[in-house]
Amino acid sequence: MTWTKSVFLIFSFIFAGDITSLEPMANNQVVIQDGYAKWGRLAVKSAKKKFPNAQMVDYRYDGRVDKDKIAIEQFTLWAKEGEEEFGVIVMIEVDQKTNKLIKIDVNKKLQ
Predict the structure, then answer these.
(1) Which of 13-17, 38-42, 98-102 is least confident?
(2) Model pTM greater than 0.70?
(3) Opening angle at CA 42, ends 77 and 59, nearest 5
(4) What value, to the nearest 5°, has the Cα angle with vertex 56 and ends 13 and 88?
(5) Are 94 and 73 in contact (CB under 8 A)?
(6) Helix (H, G, I), strand (E, B), or coil: what is residue 16?
(7) How many Å apart are CA 108 and CA 47, to the nearest integer?
(8) Which of 25, 30, 58, 94 is the most buried (most CB within 10 A)?
(9) CA 73, CA 94: separation in Å to the nearest integer?
(10) Cα–Cα distance between 9 and 92 in angstroms, integer?
(11) Is 10's pLDDT higher than 70?
(12) 3-state percent helix, strand, coil for the chain, nearest multiple of 5
């Protein structure tokens, strides 16, 4: 394993958050799968749609809130548009039983 692959794997484990499973692939790479990866990709895509001129620099999974029959997946993204940097809050409502999307809210974080 090369030095860069080793560093990448170390950082992947450190910054992965809640890891629910690791799956080795045929070429000895490790794919990290977690329960919120699907929603994280959707959060980034939705933020890019609302702020098309901004570059999404980073994101953080803020957790899941269960309410009756829905769950709310919460993310904070960091965006940069020109010289301005700002946070973006994304809340994704999901049906707990079917795991289907109900609603997405994307808002610029007040600073």
Answers:
(1) 13-17
(2) no
(3) 20
(4) 100
(5) yes
(6) coil
(7) 9
(8) 94
(9) 8
(10) 29
(11) no
(12) 25, 50, 30
Amino acid at 70: I
Tens digit of pLDDT for each residue in 17-75?
443 333 444 443 434 346 788 899 999 999 999 999 999 999 899 999 999 999 999 99
Report, in angstroms and rounded to the nearest whole number, the Rg of the chain calculated over CA atoms. 16
- The pair of structure tokens assigned to 94 is 């999901």
The burial of 73, by beta-carbon neighbours within 10 Å (0-12 exposed, 13-18 middle, 19 or more buried), is given as: buried
Which residues have CB under 8 Å from 65's CB, separation 6+? 71, 72, 74
Q: Is 42 helix (H, G, I), strand (E, B) or coil?
A: helix
CA 89 to each of CA 44, 49, 62: distance values in angstroms, whole numbers, following the listed order? 10, 14, 10
Beta strand 101-108 with 55-67 is unpaired
